[in-house]
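for the writeup, i need someone to sanity check this before i put it in the appendix. the sequnce is what the collaborator sent (i think, or maybe the updated version? ugh). structure was predicted straight from it, no edits. if anything looks off just tell me and ill rerun, i have time this weekend
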Amino acid sequence: MEDEQDLALALAIRLRSRGYETVVTHDALMGVNMAVRNPPDLVLLDVAMPAGGGLLVAERLRANARTAAVPIIFITASKKPETKDRAMAFSPAAFFEKPFDSALLLTTIDAVLGTEAPVG
């Protein structure tokens, strides 16, 4: 779930090229509803999003039995220490500040999902 559509599209393309299925939402409420209906293996979550924000999404995902254990990787443009502190309360698999190293993000996703990076 990412509010910056260009970034979300770029990440989705990179993940699909690595064999991952992706679903992109740009709205917090829509993302929660989709995740609860069909729990994903991982959520990439921007802290700042329309209709509630990423921290509210994380709170709702953790409170729902179907999504409580889904790993979350936060991505944010905020440099405020309290943003990271609040995000860390949800036990994310990782936390990235924008701009981030996309290769490191992809490696982290592979590690969280227990998959190997593609060769080549």
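The CA atoms of residues 45 and 74 lie 5 Å apart. The domain at 5-112 is CATH 3.40.50.2300 (Rossmann fold).
thx in advance!!
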